[in-house]
Amino acid sequence: MIELNNISKTFNKGKPNQVVALDGVTLHIQQGEFVVIVGSNGSGKTTMLNMLAGTVSPDFGSVLIDGKYVTKLPDYKRSKWVARIFQNPLTGTAAELSILDNFRLAALRTKNKGLTVGKTENFKNLVRDKIATLGMGLEDKTEQPIGTLSGGQRQALTLLMSIMDDCKILLLDEPTAALDPRSAALVMRTANELIKQYNLTALLVTHNLKDAGSYGSRIVQMSEGRILKDIATEEKYKLKQNDLFEWFG
Amino acid sequence: MDFYLTALLQGLCFAGIAFGIYISMKIFNIPDITTDGSYTLGGVVTGIMLTHHQPGWVILIAVIFAGGIAGALTGIIHTKLKINALLAGILVMTALYSVNLTILGRSNLPLLNFGTIFNTVNFITNGNQNSLLILGVFVTILTLLIGYLLKTDFGIAMRATGNSEPMIRALGVNTDRMKIIGLAIANALTALSGYLITQLQGFADISMGIGIVIVGLGSVIIAETIINWLRISSVWLSLILVMAGAVIFQMVLAFTLNIGVDANLLKLVTAVFVLLIVGLPCLTAARS
């Protein structure tokens, strides 16, 4: 599904603040895999995710999605495959727009946004039903600006928005970093359910080692722009949280 | 009373600027300064085409195109050359001064003997009331068009652009293109205000646009204050309030003139008035 081949990226090349973010990273991910990426700050996790999202382009190497060469494709053209959940809940939604408007845009992620009014009664009901599955009582507030909701609610809605349109790859960049423990748990649970239900290929960047231990089918540890450990299915299930702590020791 | 009727007419003429600023504020979160230039551009194109006896609908289309190109230029400079939106607007506005002067050929062009939109179509014999009717129809059509646009899928994407650019790009929208199109629409609307006001007052003037952005800004801020205050989320109601904002703004200015404030102080009064509206939410919050 995803191929990163020998990717290198250096920011501020030749300047005193030069940073080697990725140093020859190769990572192949199969359809349906749920990869958790851990590593200390500055290890290149987020850069790698952005490389897939298309907001950062590599100095060397190639990116393939679904067998297609997408290295030079900008982010708004990769939305055909990729849905993103941002670290900041405020980034993932348009605050001034209603919940319904946000969902309408999400439902058109892979399509053209044309000059027709798409918010039909059918669509409104569809959104209401989807939101009801969260059990947050938000289904009656679809006309409310999404900015009036809490960070946890917004993040949970962003997750739902990602499956409003055909989605193959879900990128989660520390989705719970800004949330309280209860909201964080709910968001992670929702994410996990959606990934399973829709058989999504997912990448989760997280600093929460508990989440890294309990979610995902594969775990990758990064350090200084390289992949340090890459542990798949069976062995990942055997990993204890203590083992993960030792990685950072 | 006629005094306030004139203010009402002017306010309706300025609805275009108000809509334009409303759109550019939605996309950028800052008002587009190109306004000063594209408003005058609309005015001088109207003036020069009227004196060349062009039919009304041709003038209308030409004005929309001229304003659109001016806005698109600002958008292109901002997105492709990564220049601050405010500066991009100032650059295009400055350049437009020379363009406008070249089009007009002189600094003032009287149009009293030419057939304008207000004196060729006669519903009522009273001139001002006839103008009011024509403007009413014109602005209603404009409001309906913009309202429909903002409600479409494209319109939702446009409104979201200023909220969160990373999000809207992740949803498959080319934000650069959206900004260019949005600014083109905004400035086409602004040029329409120039088109209307030139015909209403019967002359085109090279300095008619100086500081006009404040008129649009004031109107939008009046509207936004009411929108936030009453928690309005309807697009239609918001647009009607923006239009009403433009009228209220002119009414306040007419009132200040009427109570005998020196006309030279008008810009000062304008600035203080806008400052008051902007500061009002803060001032009331501080008291309670």
From TrEMBL, chain A:
It is a peripheral membrane protein. Keywords: ATP-binding, Cell membrane, Membrane, Nucleotide-binding, Transport. Signal peptide: none annotated. One of its GO terms (cellular component) is plasma membrane. SUPFAM superfamilies: P-loop containing nucleoside triphosphate hydrolases. It is found in: Cell membrane. Residues 2-249 form the ABC transporter domain. Pfam families: ABC_tran. Gene3D superfamilies: P-loop containing nucleotide triphosphate hydrolases. GO terms for molecular function: ATP binding; ATP hydrolysis activity. Its main location: membrane. InterPro entries: AAA+_ATPase, ABC_transporter-like_ATP-bd, ABC_transporter-like_CS, ABC_transporter_ATP-bind, P-loop_NTPase. The keyword NADP does not apply. This is ATP-binding cassette domain-containing protein.
UniProtKB/TrEMBL annotation, chain B:
Its main location: membrane. It is a multi-pass membrane protein. It comes from Mucilaginibacter segetis. InterPro entries: ABC_transp_permease. GO terms for cellular component: plasma membrane. Keywords: Cell membrane, Membrane, Transmembrane, Transmembrane helix. Signal peptide: none annotated. This is ABC transporter permease. It is found in: Cell membrane. One of its GO terms (molecular function) is transmembrane transporter activity. The chain crosses the membrane at residues 57-77, 84-104, 132-150, 180-197, 203-223, 235-259, 265-286. It holds the Pfam family BPD_transp_2. The keyword Protein transport does not apply. It comes from the Bacteria.
